[in-house]
Amino acid sequence: MIRLQRISQSISFILFLNLLYCASHPFREGIPTDLFLRLDPSVGIISSIAGRSWLLSALAPALGLLLLTAVFGRFFCGHVCPMGAMIDMFQLLFSRKSRKQQESNTVEQTSIFRSYKFVFVAFLLLAALCGVSLAFLGSPISLATRFIALVFHPLSLLLADTGIELAAPLQTLIPQLNYIQVPVRVFAANEFLAALFLSIVILSLFQPRFWCRNICPTGAILALFSVRPIVRRHVEKSCVHCNKCVRECPTGCITADHLMNVSSECIVCLKCSKTCPVSAISFGYRKTGLGPEQDGSFQKLLPTRRQTLAGIFSGIVMGGLVRTGWNQPRLMGQEKSLTDPELIRAPGSIPERAFLARCVRCGQCMKACPTNTLQPIWFKAGLEGMFSPILVPRLAACELNCATCGQVCPTGAIRPLELLEKKQVKIGTAWIDRQACLVWNQDKKCLVCDEVCPYNAVVFKPTENRKNAVPHVVPNKCTGCGWCENKCPVEGASAIRINIIGEIRLASGSYIEKAREYGLEFKTDKTDVDVLAPDTFELKGFGTNTEETPKTPQPVKRLELPQGFTED
Q1: Distances in Å between the alpha carbon of 526 and those of 63, 347, 404, 481, 542?
Q2: Among residues 40, 10, 71, 14, which one has the least CA distance to residue 216?
Q3: Which residues, 6+ apart, have CB-to-CB distance to 259 below 8 Å?
Q4: Which of 480, 473, 478, 340 shows the shortest CA–CA distance to 398?
Q5: pLDDT by residue (tens digit) across 472-488?
Q6: To the nearest whole number, what is the mean pLDDT of the chain?
Q7: Which among 35, 46, 363, 414 has a CA at the least distance from the CA of 193?
Q8: Rounded Cα–Cα distance for residues 173 and 462 (Å)
């Protein structure tokens, strides 16, 4: 018989995958693709503290979960969390527990590392108090979303594309195969993310749910709210002390006498009650419930004073080191930017310091980007900016008719903008490397940058000592979308590149009004049709009210055929 936990886990994980699948272009309004991220308390709490603002949209679901945890215990870890579901799945496939491991699964024998998750929480909270958000290092929902979006998703697309290639000999029998195309996507740092996920899985093979027991900061927060839940485990006097419940407990929360357990470590999987041969174990509410001092030894699982001080001190030091590092968005409170000139954020990104405080590196914006230009970075923005998204125009440009990245962001690090306003966002300015440009350096004909620019920000002007007109960028017409850099035919580094000169990033307010205030002229000759959306085509003149006067048909000029050719 399938346990209730497996059913709820499967439903929750399928919902998680479906919501992540819906985080794509074109975005479907009304679908809460960031639901699981908003449920994670470590995301909302740490982002709010680091950003010095209450993110009510992110905090409200998390606070609701904490209230439910006080009633039902850590049910989220056992029934809802996608990270826990993935760990359980890999354990089921690869783990084979020895008899010795099963017998030594009591809470007393497995408590050596359990205090580390509370130390980790102290570290993250103190770093957040210093204005540095490191939630992305431990948030289980952020990690699970990042793993699926940046590792498993591109691998699945590659596998599908490989399958179609292998099926090429069948195209004569199945003509439809000729029309199937799978867009293969690439992401930076995916090898490291895969290794990180593999390490979490390997640890769980040595001790079931090692991550959940000893490291997970969200698990630590939920544990503090489930010290004495209203609904918890009860053991009847008919218990025969067979030890089956101890062997089967995935988190090792049952005491050596089998009668009690530490409720803060119990994930309410109900496995103990299912395996009990005399049905002596049940979960429910009793007025004569056990007190905290009888309900296991929760105090013994808390960190020592020295460990707590170590977590606090390391969080303060880390926050101070990050804030005084070279790659800071503003050094010593000065207005002059010292960030990397190629640190191009997505349209609608709020100012850099607030952006880093809110961004939880979940990877949803990168997965949703239709052109694959959004990529995670390493240390271009310092340790604090690790895995945060930037545009890589040489890889791909920012699609004109897409604003999905802001619509799927759970914390508002990228603002959800209307498409009309998104087209008025300036994320940088193009500049021409004359030593690499074919026209400037070699006097060759090349009009690519002008032809692909949707805002007509590239103009060609005649110059001395060259027979061909050379390209110039009009700064107040350039939004930094990157089409010119992406399509430049020069091998290697593009001859025309985007940097952050002139970028505009607003935490609130209208980009349209700001562009008008600065005298920017962002007018596109592109149509309003989204060429990336299914079942749409780019039609000339679509969306305009002007009508062309029909012209009188002109006679077709007959061309003389070359010698030796006839009209037949």
Answers
A1: 45, 18, 19, 14, 9
A2: 40
A3: 235, 239
A4: 480
A5: 999 999 999 999 999 99
A6: 85
A7: 363
A8: 57
